[in-house]
Amino acid sequence: MTESSPTAAVLIIGDEVLSGRTQDTNLNTIARFLAALGIDLEEARTIGDRKDQIVDSLNALRTSHDYVFTTGGIGPTHDDITADAVATAFGVALPEHPDAVAILARRYGDDFNAARRRMARIPEGGTLIANPVTDAPGFQIGNVFVMAGVPKIMTAMLEDVAPRLRTGAVVHARTIRVTGVGEGAIADLLTAAARAEREISFGSYPFGHGSVGEMGTHLVVRGRDVARVEAATEGLLAELAAAGIEASLA
Amino acid sequence: MTESSPTAAVLIIGDEVLSGRTQDTNLNTIARFLAALGIDLEEARTIGDRKDQIVDSLNALRTSHDYVFTTGGIGPTHDDITADAVATAFGVALPEHPDAVAILARRYGDDFNAARRRMARIPEGGTLIANPVTDAPGFQIGNVFVMAGVPKIMTAMLEDVAPRLRTGAVVHARTIRVTGVGEGAIADLLTAAARAEREISFGSYPFGHGSVGEMGTHLVVRGRDVARVEAATEGLLAELAAAGIEASLA
């Protein structure tokens, strides 16, 4: 893609994902969010609730991408260690943030106990990310955005994150649905298209294999210049028609 | 967990996951598969269809875990570059494997073209992984298992992979459903339980926040010694009852 598009990585923190107990959906939500802003998501890592692993992964990702988004581990219980790990990764202290204390005190009233107070600890220099669902905030420090693991809360936090991001040129995509033939029957045609137009990416995704329904291939044409995406899509449709292969825009 | 349990990492290869087009489910399938075999899944990475990124990630993961499982990028089209990248990562050639040629020739007959023949290229020293869905094989080389990205095919390939793996002691889990209170109300009780029993892990996962239905917390008690898991679960249930908190086995 273009030189100037910001790049990003995601760090999913949680034993429950690696144990198979939970099917993560946050990565997909963040991926679609970033695509709409023209930010290139280059990598995601899923790791456990282990401080050394969080510190090492975060330091690797934050130095090699413009933005890092983390999910998970910012609740009130003993297994919520993300804030501690982020503070260690940045080499800063983890004091209570007065605004976070105020937000949580207002929410919990007489039930604002020590465990809940842990959620007010924000790495020095961090700014809060609003949580309109359960109030306990996430935070931003440098190029790292630390969010909740509960999908509903994570998704809501992205609203407060969006205005802080530099955006890029959005990637446009068109999908062609090819029916009745597998990838192998259209591979040469696709390779020729990819060679002729280097600014455009051509993805090929089979569907329906091994099941009783219709089988075929989805061809996804992607690029930042919408006119070139349209032209490449039209060209591919014409090539498929000329080869007698059934295809249409999906 | 115990010293002797094998460790594993997963490498999800595919632009379609990072672009948000596709919600990955393979990681969850592999996670549950490994959990049943007593193999510790320590990390997963999701990367794009870029050869340098595949090579670097694979070399990082295969030297730090007992097993690595990859998904995606082994089809017949130009964007399927996983076999090339794996060969480069291992520093070996990528010749056609005679058994793979035979399997594909039988499947495709007169339609066995050059693009489909690409799928018979297996890194030198690799052995095939059977694909009972569409025949095109995956492969194992060293401690790396290279599988398809289509979930139905990937899942079927795991059947052929399972007998090749050293297994560990299975992690047992019990889930307690706490209703009517959030994590903050039970955090102290959970911390005390975790301190008293170091061989057991206690996870805490809120549910129902911000929605109209029931809210509460799932407590997951995990460990390799089933008796200790049961004892810790019973102990936690008793503590919750003593505190007047509604809880039951999920």
Automatic annotation (TrEMBL), chains A, B:
Residues 9-168 form the MoaB/Mog domain. InterPro entries: CinA, FLAD1_M, MoaB/Mog-like_dom_sf, MoaB/Mog_dom. CDD domains: cinA. It comes from the Bacteria. It holds the Pfam family FLAD1_M. This is Molybdenum cofactor biosynthesis protein. It comes from Brevundimonas denitrificans.
